[in-house]
Structures are given as structure tokens and as C-alpha cells.
Amino acid sequence: MTGTAPQHTDVEGVDGGVGLTALLVAAARAIETHRDDTLVQDPYAEHFVRAAPACEDWPVRLEQVPDGDADPLWGRFARYFGLRTRVLDDFLLRAVRTGARQVVLLGAGLDTRAFRLDWPSGRAVFEIDRAGVLAFKHRVLTDLTATPRAERVPVPVDLRADWAGALATAGFDPSVPSVWLAEGLLFYLPGPAETYLIDTVDGLTTQGSALAFEAKLEKDLLVYRDSAIYTATRERIGIDLLHLFDKGPRPDSAGALAAKGWSTSMHTPFDFTERHRRGPLPEPNDALEGNRWVFAHKPRP
Ligand SMILES: C[S@@+](CC[C@H](N)C(=O)[O-])C[C@H]1O[C@@H](n2cnc3c(N)ncnc32)[C@H](O)[C@@H]1O
């Protein structure tokens, strides 16, 4: 795909619009999987990339990237996704080992955690995304005869609609502790949909539950339009992230959770680069500068 490729923002599947971003993350996870200093093993990731015509010329190994780590898209940005995946894997596993029995992946995309993480027995993983994305995922995983390591429940619904009803119909039990994840999601949603999401998570969680999400704190995202990451993503694979991000005012979701009694902590990705001694470092005109990973817990009495 080239930089002149049209942006199909309302496409339901992975062929364009926001669905294509799920493939971007899958390609990054494929590259991370095959690195010598890997942080994450996702053996399914490259199969998604290879199954989608929209990304037939994307790399799935760093050796296929001429500039390697120096490449802003398949080097630095891919490493960002690898680090994010690892940090959020650790968060989810900690939460289920300390009591959460249900996992809800909001905007799950091509996340294969239900298949690749070592879940304690009796856990359910709900995957919410739009129907077209989940149908593509189902097709690829079925072809691979992949077996989930928890009870896996796809919930095809748009997060701008009343998704809580769909989750209840799918079997989610609000009386049982749960852990929730919104990874690479909230900035695609209109502000009111994010507010509804946070209120709904609060309403559907017991004490002992947890939520992690990714936020972008920039007041004006367009300031970074010519950053290396946004430019490479737009011009080389035709994904204009700034076009896909919602431009309206963002709610203060960490503040809203704190006001509801949750304990919250907010980190930069670079905090975890330091912790894992691998990952992106800050750079000038950095599209990652405003990215924050928020970890929230609803305290037990
Ligand atoms: C960047 S991808 C991240 C996917 C996954 N969380 C991960 O990190 O691999 C964004 C995902 O959010 C989903 N998404 C965006 N807007 C959505 C909406 N309104 N309803 C449901 N899913 C949505 C997209 O379909 C896509 O799969």
C-alpha cells in the first residue's frame, strides 16, 4: 500500500480505516516475536499479516527491514508495540493471579492473549471489537487450529453503541472480579464514548477489579504531524493515524476513576523501557511524547 491509498475510515474489517491499525500492531508483534532480545512471543501475529491482502508487503521480521532498528515504523514504533504488549501481559496476569476471574479486552483487535498467555483455570476472556475485525481473526485462528487457553468469548459490537448489553448477553458477570484492558483504543473513540466506557467499567466491576488503558495527553495532536512515526506510517503503509484519532476534547479518565475511588498510576512508555532495558527512548518531535499507560485498581474494602 502507498501513501496515496485512500483512508476508508468507516470500513468494518481489517482492510482499512481503524481496523487496519489492528494489523499494524500484529505486524509489530510479529517482528518483536522474532527479535533476539524479544519481550513477547506471539506466534499468531505474522499469520494475520500474511492473511490480509492490505499488508502483503509488510515485514514480519526485523531482517526484512533495511534500516532495522533505525526504521521509525518497523524499528522504533514496532518496538513500542512490543513493549506495550509485554507490560500489559504482565498487568493482566497479575490481576488474574490475584483474583480477577474475567478478562475484558476492549477494542481487542488481533490480540491473541486468550491463546498465548498462561491463564489460571476457570478464567473467561471477552474480546470486544467490531464484527468485521473479529470475523477476520476467527478465520485466521481457525485455519491455524489455534486453541484458546481460557474460555474465549468474542463480542462483536461497536464501542460507540451500547456495548454493555452485548457483554451481558455474552455471559459477563458483574458480580465477579474482572480485569479490563483498553490498549491502543481510547483515542479512536469520541470523548463521550470514552466517558461512557469508563462509567460502564466502573458500573460493571466489583472491588478487586482492575483496568489498564492507554491515553494520549497532547492538547493538539496535529503538532506531531511531521514526526518520524506518523510520517512513516502515513507515507509507507497508508495509515494516517492522525486522521483516525478523534480530534474532540478528551475526558480525564484517570481523574474520573480516582474520583470514583479507584487507585490509579500513570506511566510513560519510557519508564518501562528503563525497567526492561529495551524499548523506545524519547526523541525530538516525538509522536510518543504524550502517550501514557494508566493502571487502575478498585480497592477491596
Ligand atoms: C490499534 S488497534 C489495537 C488492537 C488491540 N487492542 C491491540 O493492541 O492489539 C485498535 C482496535 O480498536 C478497534 N476499535 C476502534 N474503534 C472501535 C469501535 N468504535 N468499536 C469497537 N472497536 C473499535 C479497532 O477495530 C481495532 O481493532
Number of helices: 11
Strand count: 7
User: Which ligands accompany this protein?
Assistant: S-adenosylmethionine
Classify the beta-strand content into a percent band.
5-15%
The CATH topology of the domain at 76-229 and 246-297 turns out to be: Rossmann fold
CATH level-1 class of the domain at 76-229 and 246-297: Alpha Beta
Oligomer: single chain
**CATH H level, superfamily name of the domain at 76-229 and 246-297:** Vaccinia Virus protein VP39
Mean pLDDT score: 95
What is the topology, as strand order, of the major beta sheet?
3-2-1-4-5-7-6
| End-to-end CA span | 53 Å
CATH architecture of the domain at 76-229 and 246-297: 3-Layer(aba) Sandwich
Biggest beta sheet summary: 7 strands, mixed
N to C succession of SSEs: HHHEHEHEHEHEHHHEHE
Structure class: alpha/beta
Relative helix content: 25-40%
Supply Rg. Answer: 18 Å
Low-confidence stretches: 1-8
Explain what you see.
With 301 residues, the protein is α/β, with parallel strands linked by helices. The chain has a domain at 76-229 and 246-297: Rossmann fold. The protein has 11 helices and 7 strands. It has a 7-stranded mixed β-sheet with strand order 3-2-1-4-5-7-6, with helices on both faces. The model is unreliable at 1-8 (pLDDT under 50). Bound molecules: S-adenosylmethionine (SAM). It comes from Streptomyces daghestanicus. Its EC number is 2.1.1.-. It holds the Pfam family LCM.
